[in-house]
């Protein structure tokens, strides 16, 4: 079984270019299933991206990699069923649903897999697609969807700004008959990136100042060439790694504005931060300060995807940090792992109280999920002595060459097995 051997305690310093955003590339690939031939640049090399390419092929598209780009062709033939193993491989496979119903008039799939973060219902996705004319039945963990007469525009109000439900609605609405008015939509940068891609393909989408999204369906979407935005979570992960090892890091090819909430917390922790148009520089103090209260919120609030890695950093700080997880009900599975290093973390409901300790000590640990796994790796980097980290299949879903990048910054980390 593949694992990392990490000897912690090294200060991380240097420069790093950040790869494209997984959470943008995936919905864009899902949208490509209803568009013409496209070239999507800056697609990271991740297992989730390979799964998405495999799903595209089942839906009748060709999808191949050319350097950092994925080249897709307009779907021809294909079927309206995603095999169970691909659905089980990642939760984001659900963002293919809207496009499948739009193009084929039908879709059959099992409920999605992915990181286990407590209950992750898809009622908002299904509600929106039903309002657009899809008939959806669920039995024995399978979804059967059909819209023999095609989808039509609708007024949809999301009761929570779900990222995936917003994406599914946008992709479905792009070619639906008539106008869709979407309120309560998510505003994450990855949503705007998807909208940019769809517009490049000829979709008629406007975002109003209050966040309402208007989509006037078009008959047919063409292809486009698009560059995926930088991965703000990968960027934040490397910043935390440098911050908790007293390091100094320049990250390039990022959008600093997308990192604002994370940079604010790192500033509170005592880091000095400078930004340019597409770079961020961080210089960490010898030891971080407690960060106060960090509450995860929809964008532009502090991202739930950064909660675990920031917690690893907080575990080394002088003082206390309280995390409140407002997005997912069970996103603290990394806590027992971090405790193995000697981290002082107590979870109570949605809150986790972290009492920083000067010295973490290496231990055997397992990645529990994608971002929780990154937190475990960061903890090991800051700990004295050796840690063995298993469960790297989680890391490979979301970080392109994590060990290579960390090694280049001075970490002692090796993949073995
Ligand atoms: C996306 C991101 C994920 C990130 C999350 C929140 C991708 C591929 N994944 O996931 O990395 O952690 O946004 O920023 O972009 N919910 C419902 N009903 C629904 C849909 C969601 O109740 O139909 C709830 C979820 O259970 C969760 C919350 O809404 O508690 C947020 O989910 P959502 O924004 O949909 O996350 P994802 O799109 O799955």
Key descriptive features of the protein:
417 residues, alpha+beta, UDP-n-acetylglucosamine1-carboxyvinyl-transferase, Chain, 2 domains, 4-stranded mixed sheet, 23 strands, elongated, binds uridine-diphosphate-N-acetylglucosamine
Describe the structure.
With 417 residues, the chain is an alpha+beta fold. It has two domains: 3-18 and 230-416, Alpha-beta prism (UDP-n-acetylglucosamine1-carboxyvinyl-transferase, Chain), CATH 3.65.10.10; 22-227, UDP-n-acetylglucosamine1-carboxyvinyl-transferase, Chain. It is built from 14 helices and 23 strands. Helix 12 (370-382) links the parallel strand 21 (364-366) and strand 22 (385-390). Helix 1 packs parallel to helix 7 (189-200) and helix 8 runs parallel beside helix 10 (304-314). The model has no long low-confidence stretch (mean pLDDT 95). The structure holds uridine-diphosphate-N-acetylglucosamine. The site of uridine-diphosphate-N-acetylglucosamine has 21 residues, from helix 1, helix 5, helix 6 and helix 10. Uridine-diphosphate-N-acetylglucosamine is lined by residues 23, 26, 91-92, 120-125, 160, 162-165, 186, 190, 304-305, 327-328.
């Amino acid at each position: 079984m593949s694992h990392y051997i990490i000897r912690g305690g090294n200060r991380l310093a240097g420069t790093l270019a950040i790869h494209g955003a997984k959470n943008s590339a995936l919905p864009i690939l899902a949208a490509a299933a209803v568009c013409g031939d496209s070239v999507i640049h800056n697609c990271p090399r991740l297992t989730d991206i390979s799964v998405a390419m495999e799903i595209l092929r089942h839906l009748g598209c060709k999808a191949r990699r050319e350097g950092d780009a994925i080249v897709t062709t307009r779907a021809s033939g294909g079927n309206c069923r995603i095999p169970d193993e691909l659905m089980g491989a990642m939760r984001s496979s659900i963002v293919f649903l809207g496009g499948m119903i739009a193009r084929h008039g039908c879709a059959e799939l099992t409920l999605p897999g992915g990181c286990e973060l407590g209950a992750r219902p898809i009622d908002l996705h299904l509600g929106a697609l039903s309002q657009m004319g899809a008939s959806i039945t669920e039995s024995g963990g399978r979804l059967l969807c059909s819209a023999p007469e095609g989808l039509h525009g609708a007024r949809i109000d999301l009761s929570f700004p779900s990222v995936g439900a917003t994406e599914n609605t946008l992709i479905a609405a792009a070619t639906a008959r008539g106008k869709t008015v979407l309120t309560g939509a998510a505003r994450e940068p990855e949503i705007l990136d998807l909208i940019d891609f769809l517009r490049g393909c000829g979709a008629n989408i406007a975002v109003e100042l209050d966040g309402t999204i208007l989509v006037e369906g078009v008959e047919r979407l063409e292809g486009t060439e698009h560059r995926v935005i930088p991965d703000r979570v990968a960027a934040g992960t490397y910043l935390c790694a440098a911050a908790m090892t007293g390091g100094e890091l320049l990250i390039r090819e990022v959008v600093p504005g997308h990192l604002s909430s994370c940079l604010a917390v790192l500033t509170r922790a005592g880091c000095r931060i400078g930004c340019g148009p597409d770079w961020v520089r961080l210089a960490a103090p010898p030891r971080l300060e407690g960060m106060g209260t960090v509450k995860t919120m929809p964008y532009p609030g502090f991202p739930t995807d950064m909660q675990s890695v920031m917690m690893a950093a907080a575990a080394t700080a002088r003082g206390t940090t309280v995390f409140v997880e407002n997005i997912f009900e069970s996103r603290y599975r990394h806590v027992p792992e971090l405790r193995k290093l000697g981290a002082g973390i107590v979870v109570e409901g949605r809150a986790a109280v972290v009492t920083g300790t000067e010295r973490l000590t290496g231990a055997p640990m397992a990645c529990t999920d994608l971002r929780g796994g990154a937190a475990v790796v960061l903890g090991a980097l800051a700990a004295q002595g050796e840690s063995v980290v298993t469960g790297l299949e989680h890391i490979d879903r979301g970080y392109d060459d994590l060990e290579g990048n960390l090694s280049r910054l001075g970490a002692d980390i090796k993949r073995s097995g």
